[in-house]
Amino acid sequence: MTNSHTQHRGLWSGRLAFILAAAGSAVGLGNIWKFPYITGENGGGAFVLVYLLCIAIIGIPIMMSEVLLGRRGRLSPIKTMALLARAEKAPVAWGWIGIMGVVAGILILSYYSVIAGWALGYVARAAGGEFTGADAQTIQSMFGGFVGDAEKLLGWHTLFMVMTMVVVARGVSKGLEKAVMTLMPGLILLLFILLGYAIMKADFAAGFSFLFSPDFSKLNGSVILSAMGHAFFTLSLGMGAIMIYGSYLPDDVSIPKAVVTIAFLDTAVALIAGLVIFPIVFANGLEPAAGPGLVFQTLPLAFGQMSGGAIIGTIFFVMLVFAAWTSGISIIEPAVAWAQERFGFTRPVAALVLGTGTWLVGVGTVLSFNLWADVTLFGKTFFDVLDYLTANIMLPLGGLLMALFVGWVMQRQSSLDELQMSDGIAYRLWYFLLRFVTPVAVIIVFLNAIGIIG
Ligand code: PHE
């Protein structure tokens, strides 16, 4: 359903560019910062198993749907959903999926930018040789002092927001397509170097068994909800980021293979990050459940002990910033595309307005680690509330609605055409997962978490 907007909106140069851009969106802080710490908080192996299951039976089918919706509509997620709903003679209220996505994007980027700011701050620390020879305690108090300093966090948060909005203002395909192409392989290479360190110098066996020996007594409704929410978060699903990237996808690229590749890359990076971090945790008497500071308290230890650690550490945090950067732009892209359509803003104006608003919300997260650390709602700080609301509620809900739309509202032939699949076993498996398994699974996990069933 290519329409006249296509020329003005730009397209990825091809399959590889789309894969790298979508992988750039998927691979980010979620893989390297969040996955290890929530795995630690939720007791390890059983959580990892549920997360992997969610990627396979919920994440991949929904990602295929989100890309196909985007390409069919070729507009911002709000207008795409309204347009496709109209085409199927369904209520335009389906556009609310896009509205929720725009709101989720602003909320997610507001805290994502603060954490990316930590990574920026740690580039400076690594480069200054501050980790050299430091013990676990020193590294821990370094982190405590860092997040305790509201002004510093605010400065780094501001820098990251500016970096992100500058790229968004210029349009995604030009600068980003190139950047992602070199940075992603670099990040993976560095992770392998760190993996080598973890295998040889840290307690690899303990880390491995923490990640891969499931203790099912650790599972409960809220652990399962976190695993599912993280599957959505890490694959950038449910809020329109993948939909808008799909809207820039040329017509001749096949969706299913690209999606499987993206999901594989994303999962591989998360698992390798876990295999780097937990061996260091166990070798140094750290706590797996240390929370959001986990990565910032484990990796610096490794960097401080290895030869050339100042350089490797610096490169690593630079890469982490890049990983966050390529995700950050995709988080706000649906909102920016929509503001252009809706208000006729130019890209730079849309980026400035949304960037400023998002930055302001981010101040709440900055303060939640220091001055507002004791201001809580249901025991959650401002940051915790945003994280829970977006990852555990808004993204799965958005994904559920997209699955229902593609599985039940859209004609079967439309999805068959857009996916360019033959009506064979692969398509039928996808369609079955999407119509029955995915929605039921998401609903059960929701109900189970609020204690209605299970
Ligand atoms: N997937 C990104 C990460 O893992 C975060 C993200 C969420 C990006 C939602 C886009 C949309 O860091």
Notes on the structure:
- By secondary structure, this protein is mainly alpha-helical.
- It has 19 helices and no strands.
- It has helices at residues 6-9, 15-26, 29-41, 45-73, 77-87, 96-127, 136-147, 150-170, 172-201, 204-212, 221-234, 241-247, 255-283, 294-305, 309-343, 347-368, 382-409, 412-419, 425-449.
- It is globular.
- The N and C termini lie far apart (44 Å).
- Phenylalanine binds at residues 25-26, 28-31, 108, 233-234, 236, 239, 241, 327, 330-331.
Fold topology:
Blueprint: H1 6-9, H2 15-26, H3 29-41, H4 45-73, H5 77-87, H6 96-127, H7 136-147, H8 150-170, H9 172-201, H10 204-212, H11 221-234, H12 241-247, H13 255-283, H14 294-305, H15 309-343, H16 347-368, H17 382-409, H18 412-419, H19 425-449
Helix pairs in contact: 2-9, 2-12, 2-13, 2-15, 3-11, 3-13, 4-5, 4-10, 4-11, 4-12, 4-13, 4-17, 4-19, 5-6, 6-8, 6-15, 6-16, 6-17, 7-14, 8-9, 8-15, 8-16, 9-13, 9-15, 10-13, 11-17, 11-19, 12-15, 13-14, 14-15, 15-16, 17-19
The protein binds phenylalanine (PHE).
The site of phenylalanine (PHE) has 15 residues, from helix 2, helix 3, helix 11 and helix 15.
